[in-house]
Amino acid sequence: MRWCEKSWATSSHKVIRVVKREALDFFDLTLEELEQILTPRFRARQLYQWVYQRYTDDMSEVTVLPKTLRSELAEQLRFDTLTIVDKAISQDGSEKYLMRLQDGHTIEAVLLKMKPQKHHDDGGIAQEARYTLCLSTQVGCKVGCAFCLTAKGGFVRNLTAGEIVAQVWQIKRDHQLPAHRGINLVYMGMGEPLDNLENLTKAIAILTTEEGLAISAKRQTISTSGISSRIDKLGALNLGVHLAISLHAVDNETRQQLIPMNRAYPIESVIEAVKRFPYDTRKRVMFEYLMIKDLNDSPQAAKRLVTLLEGIKSKVNLIYFNPYPGTPFKRPDRARMEAFRDALHSRGITCTIRESKGLDIEAACGQLREKAAKG
Ligand code: SF4
Questions:
Q1: Structural domains of the chain in order of their starting residue, each with its CATH number
Q2: Mean pLDDT for all residues in the chain
Q3: pLDDT digits (tens, 9 = 90+) for 213-262
Q4: Is the peptide bond before 40 cis (omega within 30 degrees of 0)?
């Protein structure tokens, strides 16, 4: 807490604060932390509901709170954690957001429309649209994957929990998605999530809070490039989230070429960590496999992948490499992709080919940010 604490009270409510140095980032506060600041406790819950479920950040509009309290809160809390500075909309409905943080750095988040809204003949809604939101956890990244634009800019800093939460809030608000509308979150944008585990854990606590955005942990997936020791750490926290591993290769030599960190955490150590992960037996661990023409798309690679995944309840996502200017890697042929998928299927492994959503808006991580940097 950055405030000196001292009681201030009226007959109806009490705010603990007085010497204000800097307004607190609302999105960085768990409900329990807000309850420490704002009493009686139900006032904190009311504020949480108004901000997260009605998308209001103007305290004068929170009419459920007494007027004096509203003006106090307007001084003590800030909601400008990040702002949307650019948005690119793809033909497939994906929307890529460029967001500016308070210190001027920019990050990206992508809203993927997984299923469109469907209507009955009478115009009623037969099926709600389904969304997945791909979030950033760091400015830049330390991992340095060879195929990634984010890696080119190096690592700048971890995002705070508030900066992770605010990405969801801003995009849900931008679409005015009703509070109850289910949305899946995947920590797969800029950064290695397990490299910022403490802030990510806090963000997940805020995002799952019933009075807030109420996004169940079951709807959240942490995607890692495979830091084995941190997979164990995440497992020990038992958050109930899904796990996705960016495998991308089946031998250490190729994987090292793609993910230099593989030197410290070779494939075998990643697979062993996945086997130790306390997974709900009904769920599957997702393995992401970025297909690159003539590098990792051979029938032999498919065979080796089957062997590696033995004993793991897994699902494999084959992703088309999404070329960008200057990259030496090429997009694979559809026939090779399908043959790879069929080889996994024939050995009982669920496997899907992911069409590169948002291809026309350069949805691979870091591309919109790179473009903005070049002006
Ligand atoms: S692909 Fe992900 S983990 Fe690899 S450098 Fe890019 S942001 Fe980091």
A1: 7-78 (1.10.150.530), 82-373 (3.20.20.70)
A2: 87
A3: 999 999 999 999 999 999 999 999 999 999 999 999 999 999 999 999 99
A4: yes
Exposed / middle / buried, residue 92 (Cβ in 10 Å: 0-12, 13-18, 19+): middle
Strands 82-89 and 95-101: antiparallel
Quick one: CA torsion of 356, 362, 365, 366, rounded to 10 degrees?
170
Q: Is 5 a catalytic residue?
A: no
365 is catalytic: yes
**C-alpha of residue 324 to centroid of ligand 1, in Å:** 15
How far is it, in rounded angstroms, from Cα 182 to Cα 253? 41
User: Is the distance from the beta carbon of residue 151 to the nearest atom of ligand 1 less than 6 Å?
Assistant: yes
pTM: 0.89
**Cα–Cα distance, 193 to 222 (Å, whole number):** 7
- Taking every pair of Cα atoms in the chain, the longest distance, rounded to a whole number of angstroms, is 75
Q: How far is the CA of 33 from the centre of ligand 1 (A)?
A: 32
- In the chain, which ranges are continuous DSSP H helix? 31-37, 41-54, 67-76, 149-152, 161-174, 197-208, 228-237, 252-258, 267-276, 299-308, 334-346, 367-373
